[in-house]
Write a structure and sequence with these properties.
With 327 residues, this protein is an alpha/beta fold. It is built from twelve helices and eleven strands. It has helices spanning 5-29, 46-62, 77-85, 100-106, 114-117, 142-151, 166-178, 190-199, 209-217, 264-279, 281-289, 299-320; strands at residues 35-39, 66-70, 92-97, 118-127, 129-133, 157-160, 183-186, 204-208, 222-226, 252-259, 293-294. The strands form two sheets. The chain has a six-stranded mixed sheet, sandwiched between helices. Strands 7-6-8-5-9 form a five-stranded mixed sheet. The longest helix has 25 residues, at 5-29.
C-alpha cells in the first residue's frame, strides 16, 4: 500500500511532535505525587538543614509533599548513586554538595560520572571558607603569614576536616599559589580540627565560615582572609585571600540536581521556584543564619560551574598527590 507523499509527511510530522507533547503534558501535570530530595549526608548538618528549607518552600509552591531522604556514606557517593539510579521523572531530586567536584578525582572506582549522569537544576548558595590561624602566630595579614611560613619551613601545621575535604584541598591550593610548604594534619571533621587550632597544636586552617565564626568573634582564632571572591557580610573588615594571593578562591556551595533525562520543562520549573526562594526575604534570612550566601543560577550556568570546579580541583589533587588515606 502506497501513501501519498503529502499524507506521509503529515504522519511523520505528527510522530515527531508526540514526544514533545508527551513531555509537555508531563510537565503540566507535575507534580501529581510527593517529591523526594536525596541528601547524601546524615541529618542535622548544614546540608540537611538547607535541603529541608528548600523542601518546605517547594512543597508550598508545588502543592505536593517534599520528603527529605538522608543517604549518607562513602563521602556522599552513596546518596549520589541512589539519585543517579532513580527514574528521571522529576520525583527524585538530589541535594548536590560541592564534594562532587573533588570526589570525581579522589575516588577511582565510582560507578557513575557526575557531570554526565546528573542534570543540574539550580544553585542554592555559596558557603565561604576562611583562612584562620592560632593567635600565637605573629601574623596579622595573609602577606605576613606567608613571610612567616617561608622563614619557618617545616614548622607550620595545617589542619583540615579530613584528607580530600574542602578544607584540605583549599589549603593545598593556597600552598601552591603562595609558594609555601605546610604540614597537613587531617582530622575526623572540622570540629576537632578547630579545637586543636584553638589549643595551638596546629597553626592554620581553612574552614567553612559557620564552623569558625564564633571562635573568630571571641578571639580564639584570628581570621586573616576569606577564601571567597568577595568580602563577606559576616566579616566585613576581613579581606579576601585573593587580595594578596591572586587567583585563590575556595568556597563550598550547594544546589539541586536530578537524574539525567529528567524533562527539561520540569527542570526549568524547579529552577524558577528555587530562584524565587532565593529572592524571598525570609529564605534569605534563614540562609544567612547558616552563613550561606544565596547564589541563583540557570541550569546551564550551574553545570558550567560544576565542570569548571571539577577540573580545577582535579589539578590541585593530582599536583598535591592527595589520597584518602589517614583519619
Amino acid at each position: 500500500m502506497k501513501f501519498p507523499r503529502r499524507r506521509f509527511l503529515r504522519l511523520a510530522a505528527g510522530a515527531a511532535v508526540l514526544p514533545l507533547a508527551s513531555r509537555l503534558a508531563l510537565a503540566q501535570a507535575y507534580p501529581s505525587r510527593p517529591v523526594r530530595i536525596i541528601v547524601p549526608v546524615a541529618p542535622g548538618g548544614a546540608l540537611d538543614i538547607l535541603a529541608r528549607i528548600m523542601g518546605q518552600w517547594l512543597s508550598e509552591r508545588l502543592g505536593q509533599s517534599v520528603v527529605i531522604e538522608n543517604r549518607p556514606g562513602a563521602g556522599t557517593n552513596i546518596g549520589i548513586e541512589a539519585a543517579v539510579r532513580a527514574a528521571p521523572d522529576g520525583y527524585t531530586l538530589l541535594l548536590i554538595p560541592a564534594s562532587v567536584t573533588t570526589n570525581a578525582t579522589l575516588y577511582q572506582d565510582l560507578t557513575f560520572n557526575f557531570v554526565r549522569d546528573i542534570e543540574p537544576v539550580a544553585m542554592i548558595s555559596t558557603l565561604p571558607m576562611v583562612m584562620e590561624i592560632n593567635p600565637q602566630i605573629p601574623a596579622k595579614t595573609v602577606a605576613e603569614f606567608i613571610a612567616y611560613a617561608k622563614a619557618n619551613p617545616g614548622k607550620i601545621s595545617m589542619a583540615s576536616g579530613g584528607s580530600g575535604s574542602s578544607s584540605h584541598v583549599g589549603g593545598e591550593l593556597f600552598k601552591m599559589l603562595a609558594g609555601i610548604d605546610m604540614i597537613h594534619v587531617p582530622y575526623r571533621g572540622g570540629a576537632p580540627a578547630l579545637a586543636d587550632l584553638i589549643g595551638g597544636q596546629v597553626q592554620v586552617m581553612f574552614s567553612p565560615l559557620p564552623e569558625s565564626l564564633g571562635a573568630i568573634r571571641s578571639g580564639q582564632v584570628r581570621a586573616l582572609g576569606v577564601a571567597s571572591a568577595k568580602r563577606v557580610e559576616a566579616l566585613p573588615d576581613v579581606p579576601t585571600v585573593a587580595e594578596t594571593v591572586p587567583g585563590f578562591e575556595a568556597s563550598t556551595w550547594q544546589g539541586i540536581g536530578a537524574p539525567k533525562g529528567t524533562p527539561p520543562e520540569i527542570i526549568e520549573r524547579l529552577n524558577r521556584e528555587i530562584n524565587a526562594a532565593l529572592a524571598d526575604p525570609k529564605i534569605k534570612g534563614r540562609l544567612a543564619d547558616l552563613g550561606s550566601i544565596p547564589t541563583p543560577m540557570s541550569p546551564a550556568d550551574f553545570k558550567k560551574l560544576i565542570v569548571a570546579e571539577t577540573e580545577k580541583w582535579a589539578k590541585v589533587i593530582r599536583t598535591a598527590n592527595i589520597t584518602l588515606q589517614g583519619p
